[in-house]
């Protein structure tokens, strides 16, 4: 006889059913179960918890010249996209993609190579809103702002997808396993260096 219709009233109930079936019938792999869990809970996660915070973002100055040395430094940073600012990091005017820079045959100003469309998202937004925004705009880098419209970090499409599949992903230009950890490590090194130069 067919099973009676079951009304599932919450995500927790659905997760419990999935976990039970994974344990009892071995028809769902642990990897598939993890993705299902992440997808169901995805909308409860906030941008502010998974963005790269402002003090670890690698910015590019709009006045810079993309020489081989500068491009090498960008490559060594471990990132593949960089917000471009004018005057200060609260005035974002575009985004520089490493793949565009490395194709240069000769040095050019950042403003000639950067993409000048900038998209913003509030840090309090859930990740599913961010994912919808990435799909709609076909952009891979959002500037994150707080309630006062101050720039507080950046969010990439990889940051969002990682929360669904449960492990880091990289594009062809990424050089490190966890770019946020690398960025934080570099920021800590810079702060330590600055402290050593303070005259007391």
Task: Describe this protein's structure.
The structure is a single chain. The protein has helices at residues 11-25, 30-41, 68-76, 98-101, 110-113, 127-137, 157-165, 179-196; strands spanning 52-53, 60-61, 65-66, 81-86, 88-97, 108-109, 120-122, 141-145, 151-156. The protein has 200 residues and is α/β, with parallel strands linked by helices. The strands form 3 sheets. Strands 1-9-8-7 form a 4-stranded mixed beta sheet. Strand 4 and strand 5 form a beta hairpin. Helix 1 packs antiparallel against helix 2 (30-41).
Low-confidence stretches: 172-183, 193-200
Order of helices and strands: HHEEEHEEHEHEHEEHH
Q: Which percent band covers the strand fraction?
A: 15-25%
Termini separation comes to 82 Å
The largest beta-sheet arranges its strands as 1-9-8-7
Overall pLDDT: 81
């Amino acid at each position: 006889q067919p099973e009676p219709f079951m009304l599932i009233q919450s995500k927790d109930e659905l997760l419990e059913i999935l976990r039970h079936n994974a344990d009892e019938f071995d028809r769902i792999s642990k990897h598939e179960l993890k993705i299902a869990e992440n997808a169901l809970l995805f909308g409860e996660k906030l941008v502010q918890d998974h963005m790269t915070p402002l003090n670890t973002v690698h910015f590019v100055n709009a006045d810079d010249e993309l020489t081989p040395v500068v491009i090498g430094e960008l490559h060594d940073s471990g990132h593949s996209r960089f917000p471009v600012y004018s005057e200060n990091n609260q005035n974002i005017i575009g985004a520089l993609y490493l793949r565009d820079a490395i194709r240069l045959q000769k040095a050019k100003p950042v403003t000639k190579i950067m993409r000048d469309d900038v998209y913003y998202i509030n840090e309090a937004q859930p990740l599913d809103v961010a994912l919808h925004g990435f799909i709609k705009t076909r952009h891979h880098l959002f500037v994150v702002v707080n309630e006062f419209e101050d720039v507080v970090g950046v969010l990439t499409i990889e940051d969002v997808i990682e929360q669904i599949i449960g492990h880091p992903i990289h594009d062809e230009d990424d050089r490190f396993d966890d770019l946020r950890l690398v960025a934080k490590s570099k920021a800590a090194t810079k702060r330590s260096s600055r402290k050593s130069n303070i005259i007391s």
